[in-house]
Amino acid sequence: MPVDLSQFSTEDLMEEVRRRLDCINKPEKRIILIGPPGSGKGTQSPVIRKDHCLCHIATGDMLREAVNKGTPLGIQAKKAMESGQMVSDDVVVGLISEAIAVPECKTGFVLDGFPRNVSQARKLDAMLAIKGQAIDKVLNLKVEERVLEERVTGRWVHPASGRSYHEVFAPPKVMGVDDLTGDPLVRRKDDNVEVLHRRLRLFISQTYPVLDYYGGRVATIAANQTPSEVAEQIRRALKLS
């Protein structure tokens, strides 16, 4: 279906043309973001995507979209979720394989939320190898526990889009209201210290070994700094790859 360009300003259209021309010369990059809850993955992913002309794959959003569309893999995922089971790694890797096959991902991707353990990393690598691809860089967003607590307990989210705000670090223009839509913001029921500590224990026991698995491809980012400072660290790390 043709897109109605009349809704966009000339400046916006020209900016998009410039962006696409700039993307032509961007080298391919396939990046994994690893970090505990509150480390800033959701904040930095769009920045990386824009800087390097990549597509952003958030596995949670990807699963929900596949279920809503009723794709074959989405149907499998829905059956698992409705029965109270975890969606199998094979289904998730299959969904990632489909997601990165679209033209928007031809220069690569930034993957957020997967892999969570070494077994998943191996399956991801095996799938990419079939395509003649590989992970280029793993960004380890490292943050002290006390900072994570402060970030998580002050977070507010726009449910429809996933946009997140923070009552101290990134407040909305009007407290409790999404900047773009005016919809009410909500606090996720699991954004509390008890759930954070439980997730941190799982992260340390299951996900930390993924960093050893990828070895020399890992760049550790001091993610307790401001978003702009973290983004600059990431830019420097990805220029080295």
TrEMBL record:
Catalyzes the reversible transfer of the terminal phosphate group between ATP and AMP. Plays an important role in cellular energy homeostasis and in adenine nucleotide metabolism. Gene3D superfamilies: P-loop containing nucleotide triphosphate hydrolases (3.40.50.300). It comes from the Eukaryota. Residues 155-190 form the Adenylate kinase active site lid domain. Its EC number is 2.7.4.3. Keywords: Kinase, Nucleotide-binding, Transferase. One of its GO terms (molecular function) is ATP binding. Belongs to the adenylate kinase family. Transmembrane segments: none annotated. Signal peptide: none annotated. InterPro entries: Adenyl_kin_sub, Adenylat/UMP-CMP_kin, Adenylat_kinase_CS, Adenylate_kinase_lid-dom, P-loop_NTPase. This is adenylate kinase. It catalyses: AMP + ATP = 2 ADP.
